[in-house]
Amino acid sequence: MTQKLAAGLIIYRKLAESIEYLLLQTSYSENHWTPPKGHLDEGEDYLTAAVRETEEEAGLKEDLDYTFLSKTFSIECNYVIKGKEPKKVLYWIAKMLNPNTEIKLSHEHINYKWLKLSDACEITKYDEMKCVLNRADTFIINNMKN
Ligand SMILES: Nc1ncnc2c1ncn2[C@@H]1O[C@H](COP(=O)(O)OP(=O)(O)OP(=O)(O)OP(=O)(O)OC[C@H]2O[C@@H](n3cnc4c(N)ncnc43)[C@H](O)[C@@H]2O)[C@@H](O)[C@H]1O
Fold it and tell me: Between the N and C ends of the chain, which has fewer C-beta atoms within 10 Å?
């Protein structure tokens, strides 16, 4: 079976005492929570798709610090949808330049939340997603300058 390919961004914001991650709740399926992400358009590379989908789904583009994108660090997430369709998602990490910038949802999502790592892991029911969030958190802490 053909593998579905998708890409997205793990977006975080730094507050005085904590780091929070942006998760969006889908308006379809099980209304699951996911970072902004989506399928690759024909001929599109993963990174371009990640940035495009984030703008489409959260209204964020110029509002992000993309420093970590240039470090070629990405996190691969593999799973099988409903036991049938294999899917590979590549995530990059981006930081909110202003933690209070408004999130503008598209019709694909009904809600969003900024969550600390433990809460983000709790709300996403999938182990693969928890693993991605934990790896992102470790990378951010190890590479954070301010
Ligand atoms: N059921 C549905 N009804 C109506 N429209 C739908 C639909 N599913 C998708 N769409 C449409 O497809 C578009 C989304 O396309 P895109 O926006 O391009 O792609 P995506 O975020 O990768 O899609 P999706 O939300 O389906 O992916 P995920 O892997 O998280 O999730 C895909 C499935 O895998 C499950 N899943 C997520 N992570 C998993 C994991 N780690 N293990 C097992 N299953 C997992 C999710 O619960 C979900 O069921 C939307 O416009 C929407 O309208």
Answer: C
Q: Please answer whether residues 40 and 134 qualify as being in contact, where contact means their C-beta atoms are separated by less than 8 angstroms.
A: no
**ipTM for the assembly:** 0.89
Number of folded domains that form the chain: 1
Give the binding-site residues of ligand 1, using a 6 Å CB cut-off.
6, 26, 28-30, 32, 34, 37-39, 79, 81, 87, 108, 126, 128-129
- Give residue 133's domain range: 4-143
pLDDT tens per residue across span 22-53: 999 999 999 999 999 999 999 999 999 999 99
Ligand 1 centre distance from Cα of residue 84 (Å)? 13
3-state class of 24 per DSSP?
strand
Q: What is the CATH number of the domain that holds 42?
A: 3.90.79.10
What pTM was estimated for this model as a whole? 0.94
